[in-house]
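Hypothesis: this fold can be encoded by more than one sequence.
Test: take the structure tokens below, design a sequence, compare later.
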């Protein structure tokens, strides 16, 4: 008993969450997919003596002077957490964003990820959220055949239902899909107009699947998280290489000189508190162990990993600039 009490925690000190500023941080950071309440809860769980007592304290403290411009916060739990409104309402006015958010632009999307918990009451809550001035999309929603937390027929039915509701409202879509390529592709093509704005969040499936979606939906974008840095995931890296090779280069023209060729349709995201980029530890040589949570200020390391993978004249700044342009195209932020 006494031995366990005296055992040192292998969680790095909370000071290490305050990251160094990489070169890429000269470019504004836009995180297109973060779970802010879950990230803050993870912080409080791992660092019970931490000095940040509210979401706003956490954001202002951890993101201070890290050039974070905007975040898209994701609410996808059931039942819908009532905290969403307090958080969103605190970002309505420019004055509140300056005082409570340190000038960061807070936006959010809402949907239902757990299909078996979706019902009329949940849908009414989501529809209410869709009218909020800081809401920029419906999600995350979709199919997950890896965990199969809901029966697959229920997943498909609820996915289609939410897609129809979002399309009717003209809201951009944030899609989760994992090991469900055939059904995801079929349902998207059945329910979503070709020109609708779509963000395939944290893509890890086959490059061929992604290319079919990119070809069919000209306003579909692929979200890249820190998972691209993991040796266990080769699909995302292969897809990004393809997208860079077939899209425009870091300048106005693509590598073959075609100035009219569109740039790669990538978005940068963290999916915080999950998936800390593995390449971040090279910038934190003093850290022993692994950071217990990811957060928005880690975006430059995601961009750095993308740039290292694709080469061809791309730097992390080029990746971030392209992703920021795409974030404006999808979410208007």
């Amino acid at each position: 008993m006494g031995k366990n009490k005296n055992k040192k925690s292998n969680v790095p000190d909370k000071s290490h969450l305050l990251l160094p500023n990489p070169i890429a941080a000269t470019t504004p950071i836009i995180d297109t997919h973060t779970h802010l309440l879950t990230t803050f809860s993870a912080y409080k769980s791992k660092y019970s003596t931490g000095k940040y007592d509210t979401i706003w304290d956490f954001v202002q403290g951890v993101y201070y002077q890290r050039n974070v411009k905007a975040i898209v916060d994701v609410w996808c739990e059931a039942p819908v957490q009532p905290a969403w409104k307090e958080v969103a309402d605190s970002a309505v006015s420019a004055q509140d964003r300056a005082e409570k958010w340190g000038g960061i632009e807070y936006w959010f999307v809402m949907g239902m990820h757990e299909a078996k918990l979706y019902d009329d009451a949940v849908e009414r809550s989501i529809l209410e959220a869709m009218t909020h001035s800081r809401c920029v999309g419906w999600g995350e929603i979709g199919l997950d055949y890896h965990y199969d937390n809901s029966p697959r027929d229920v997943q498909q039915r609820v996915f289609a239902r939410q897609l129809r509701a979002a399309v009717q409202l003209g809201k951009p879509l944030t899609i989760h899909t994992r090991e469900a390529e055939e059904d995801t592709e079929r349902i998207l093509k059945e329910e979503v107009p070709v020109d609708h704005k779509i963000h395939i969040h944290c893509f890890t499936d086959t490059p061929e699947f992604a290319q079919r979606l990119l070809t069919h939906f000209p306003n579909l974008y692929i979200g890249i998280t820190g998972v691209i840095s993991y040796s266990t995931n080769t699909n995302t890296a292969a897809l990004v290489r393809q997208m860079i090779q077939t899209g425009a280069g870091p300048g106005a023209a693509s590598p073959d000189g075609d100035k009219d060729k569109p740039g790669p349709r990538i978005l940068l995201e963290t999916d915080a508190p999950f998936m800390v980029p593995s390449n971040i530890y090279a910038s934190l040589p003093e850290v022993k162990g692994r950071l217990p949570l990811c957060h928005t200020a880690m975006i430059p390391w995601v961009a750095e990993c993308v740039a290292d993978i694709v080469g061809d004249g791309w730097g992390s700044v080029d990746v971030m600039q392209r992703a920021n342009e795409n974030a404006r195209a999808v979410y208007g932020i």
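The longest strand covers residues 135-144. The chain has one domain: 53-250+272-331.
Hypothesis status: open.
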